[in-house]
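W.,

You were right to be curious about this one. When I first looked at the sequence I had no strong expectations either way, so I just let the prediction run and decided to look at it fresh. Below is the sequence, 368 residues in total, followed by the output.
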Amino acid sequence: MYRIERDRARFREIVRGKLRSDLRKYLSTSELLGRRGDKAVSIPVPQIELPRFHFGENKKSGVGQGQGKKGEPIDGDAEEGEGQGGAGEDEGQHILEVEVELAELAEMLGAELELPKIEPRGDRALMADGGRYNGVRNAGPQSLRHFRRTFKNALRRTIAAGEWEPARPRVVPIADDARFRAKKSCPQPDSSAVIFHVMDVSGSMGREQKDIVRIKAFWIDTWLRSQYKNLEVVYIVHDAVAKIVDQESFFHLRESGGTKISSAYELVLQLIQDKYRPEDWNIYPFHYSDGDNWSARDTERCVHILRDEVLPRVNQFCYGQVKSAYGSGQFKKDLDTALDGDDRLVTANINDREGIADAIREFLGKGR
């Protein structure tokens, strides 16, 4: 059994090393997204097939001698035009997949992008009951029975009652002798966080732009889940109006209307005020768009909401501008100009998939 565990540990270390070396590739592809579970993700592992001889039966006995005629087929029974699509008896080629825990994947991400640990700000931490089983009590389930304490009590009682016989030492515990392990309460901080993934789903945001957003959201969620014990994710889409949707709709919904970004910011603010109070939650809004807004007046409204309402309540607000053939990219310029110097706002340009890793580092590199 020891050898099996040792070999398994060595195999997992090989897989981890391969994953670390290829992590940059996974940061720009959606290969892991469909293999994600609640606590682990399946990683396809490449295999090397060693060449070997395959033995079969010769249809004609003897060794060929003399010169063959031009055009003569090697197997005389084969006819021209025969296909090879029939059923066979040989085994197929399979891809090996190994599960890697999301916490371990987040650790690799942090090491690759040099991400600092996040320290929750202020009193934004819920207190959860913690502690260890280092106490003793007189009642409890048998699974928590403290054998040593129970035996000592039984031995003392036997000696005190004069029933101890050194020649025939025998101790029989009774119910009053039983002692059980008890957990001493020790409240511990249990940080909670909420992520708002907000995306423009107007006609200018195509499939490639949404794939980039999907990849970014996967890695952002993976990192923040490793930093907070309780994490909630809210998905919001907007064109001219904003609404809350599920994860499936978030990545596949596409509208043909215009773009009014302030509608999304107003919805985020409403959720913060009604449900996710900054006294109890660490708040991370992430907004993705191609930079088009319907008017300069609405952009001014967005700046007002961010500066006066949203930024004072959140840990950090991140805006990722995904390059599109139809987007002007003006919104990021307006935010950078109006809110210059406010470190609670982080903006990044994402021109293609290769820029995803740099954008993630921009968003998560401040440790807020």
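Here's what jumped out at me. The chain is about 35% helix and 20% strand. And, maybe more interesting for your project: The two ends are 45 Å apart (CA to CA).

Coffee later to discuss?

I.
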